[in-house]
Amino acid sequence: MTMHASFMAEHGARLADNGYAVIPIMPGAKVPGRCSGGEWTPYPDWSRHADRPTKPFEIDIWQRWPGCGVGIACGTVVGLDIDVTDAALAIQLTDLATEIFGDTPCLRIGQAPKRLLVYRAETPFAGRKRHPLEVLARGQQFVAHAIHPATGQPYSWPQDSLLDVPLASLPAVTEAQVMAWLDQAYALIPAEMKPRTLMADSAPAGAWKGPSDPRGTFEAVQSALQFIPNEDLDGASWITMGAAIKASLGEEGRQLWLDWSRQASKSGASGRSDTPERRWKTLRPHSIGAGSIYAMAIERGWVPPAEITLNAAAAERAAQPHPAAAFLATLNANRANQAAEPLPVPASILQPGGVLQMLVEECVRSALRPQPFLALGAAICAVGALAGRKYRTSTDLRTNIYIAAVAESGGGKDHAPEVIRRCFDLARLERYLGGENIASGRGMLSSLEQHPARLFQIDEFGLFLGTVTGGRAPAHKAEIWSELMKLYSRAKGIYRGTEYADKKDAPRVDIHQPCVCFYGTTTPSTFWKALEGGAMMDGSLARFLVFVTDVDRPERNRGAGIVAPPAGLLEALKAIARGQGDPPALGNLPDVHVVPMSATEEPTPFTVPLSVEAEAIQERKLAEEDAWARRVAGTPQAAIVNRLGENASKLALICAISRDPAHPQMTEADVTWGWALAEHCARTVLRDAQRFLADSEFEKRLNKAIHIIGKHGPCSRRDLFHKGLKLTAREFGEVIDALVSNGVAVETPPPPYSGVGRPPGPRYVLVQPNSEMAAEQAAEDE
C-alpha cells in the first residue's frame, strides 16, 4: 500500500468550501482518526464536526497529519452503500436508485463493483442497514478520498466528485424515498447474499456501552426489533434473539418473540417440533439481554427515540417520585409569592413615635430616594446602642439587636446610616459608633473593650458575610462571625476574653454586659448567596431581623438636602444615652462629653415595666408563637419562629425607651408595634429563604436555575451557564430533568438556526405556578 502525503491537504479545503462537513480519516482504514506526535488513534468524538460547517483552522491542522484521508460526515449528505460483488446486480441497484431519486453525478468506487451513491437529504434522518445494503445518514460517515485498505489504491470517482459538485447541487431525497429504495433493492438481493445469522453482522463483543442491567423496557425492545427483521435467519440467531428478549422483558416479552419469529416463512411450519412457543419455555438466558438487542438494532440504523427509556431500572426510578420532587413542589406552590412584590410594610409599623420617628423623618427628608422602612431599621439599631446596658425587660432582655437591610443597588439603602453617623457626631455621641469595617474578631472585641456599647454600620453587608462565613474564610475573618454570635447572647452577662500565654502584653479582658447593635445594608443576591444552606437551622439567620424594602427604587425626593438634624432630635438622643431617671441640671456645659463607660463596669440596668394591657397582649402573642413553633418543629423555619418573641420584646423595649427615656414603660401600643414588626420580618425571611436558600448542593442548583429563568425568561443551557449556573453537562442534565419531570419548567423548541456558529439548543420556560396550590401553601404558612 502506498502512503499518500495527505489527501486532506489536497482536497480538504475545497470540500469544505463546497459545504461538506469534513472529518479526518486514519491512513489505511475507513474510520475517523486523529494524529498526535506521528501516532494515529481512533477519533471517537468525530460526530461533533457533523452539525456545523468545517472551520478553516481545522483543515489547517488536519492537513499536516501524514497520510490523512478525507471523510464526509452524513446528515445533510446521504450515502447509498451498495456492498455487492456481482457487477450486474450493482448496476441494477444503481439504476433503481436513479429511477426513484434521479441521477446523481457523484458515485464513489472503492473496491469495484461495490459503490456508494451520494445524495442530499431534504431533512436529516437516521440511516438503516440491511446487509449488504446500507443507507448512511445522520450520525454516520463515509470515506471520500483515501487509500482503500483492501486494494491499496485511492478511492475513485468515475464521473463527478464532491470536489466538483457543491452540496446544494446534489439531488435531494426524503427519508420515505430512501427507505422505499432500500425495501425494493433488498428484494433484488439473492438469498445466498443475505445474512443467515445476526451474529456476523452485529457489533463485536464488548462494543455495547449501554446499561449493564440486562433488563430493558417493552417500548424500547419493540422499537428496536423493527430494525432487526427475521428473514429466515439461522437457528443460532433465532435462539439468541429469543434469549435476549426473555432476559430483557421476562414473560412480558413472549408475544414480541412470537411475532418476531413468525416473520420467517419456516417458523411454525407443519411437522416442525421446535415451535416458538415451545422454544420460549426452554430458554435460559445468560450473558445477554436488552443491550444485545439495542446494539444489533443500532448497527442497522436504529436511533433510540428520546422519549423512550432503554433500561428497566431507569424506568422504575423514573416512575418513583423524583428525589427533588418535594422540594420542587414546595417551590412551585410558593412561586406565586416568590415572584410577587415584596411584602408590603404596614403603615402602623412606620409610625413608632418618639426618637425612632424623629430619626426616620430626618432620613426621609434628606434622602434623594427615601426608604422609610430601612431608615426605621437604622433608627432601631441607633437607639438600641445608646440604650445599651441602661435598660432591660423583666425577663432580662437587652437592647442589642442585629438588622440586615436588603434592597437592590441604587435604591437609597445607604442614606440612613449616614444620617445616624451625622446625628451621633453632632450630639457628641461618637463613642457609640464602631468602625465602618471590621478587620478581625480581635479588632471588634478591642473596640468593645474601649466602649462596651457600640453600633456597627456595615455597608455591602452581603460581601462582608461572604468573607466571614463558609469553610474558606480566613481564621481572623471567621472569628468575626463567631464573636458576633456569642456577643448576641452575652448582653446580660459577662463576655470573658481570650486567654493568651503572654499575660503581661496580652492579658485577658472581660466585658460586662456588652451591647452590640449591628446594621448591615446589602443587595438580595449577595446577602442570600453569602449565607450557607444551614444558616436557618443553626440559628445564624434567626439572630437577624431582615428588613426588605417594599420599593426597590423609590420616587426621587425633589426636596432632598443636606443632613441637618434639628436640635430637638440631638437632645433626645443624648437623653437616651444618659439613661433612666430625671436628668441632673447640665448648667452651661451641655456639650461636655460624658465619661465613657468602662468595659469592666458592672451596670445596673433599669427594668422597664409592662402595663397591664401590654402584659395581656404579650401573653397572647407568646401563646401564638408557641403554636406556630410546634407546627414548624424540626424544619428550617423553627429557628426563625423560636426567636420571634425575643425579637418582639426587644423592639417593644426600644420603642418605649425612644418615647420616654426618663420614665419608660412598655404600653399596649409598644408591644403591638414590636410584635407586628417582628412578625413582618419573620414572614419576609421565611418566604425569601425558600427562594434563595437550600439544604443541599443540588437544591441550590435548582434554586439558581429557577431564579435565572424567572428573571431572564426562556433560557437555553448555554444561557443558564453564562448567567451564572456553572455546571458540567451531567449536572446540567440532572437539574433540567428535575425541573421538567416535576412540572416546574417545560422545554420549548430552539429558535431557527441562522447558519452561523453552533446551532441553538432548546429553551426552558417556567410553568405558571398553580394558584390553588399557592393559596393552600399560603394558608398553611399562616
TrEMBL record:
Domain of life where this protein originates: Bacteria
CDD domains referenced in this protein's UniProt entry, alphabetically: Prim_Pol
Ranges where the DNA primase/polymerase bifunctional N-terminal domain occurs: 12-174
Record-linked InterPro entries: DNA_primase/pol_bifunc_N, DUF3987, PriCT_2
GO molecular function per UniProt: hydrolase activity, acting on acid anhydrides
Cited Pfam families: DUF3987, PriCT_2, Prim-Pol
Protein name per Swiss-Prot or TrEMBL: DUF3987 domain-containing protein
Native organism taxonomy: Bacteria, Pseudomonadati, Pseudomonadota, Alphaproteobacteria, Acetobacterales
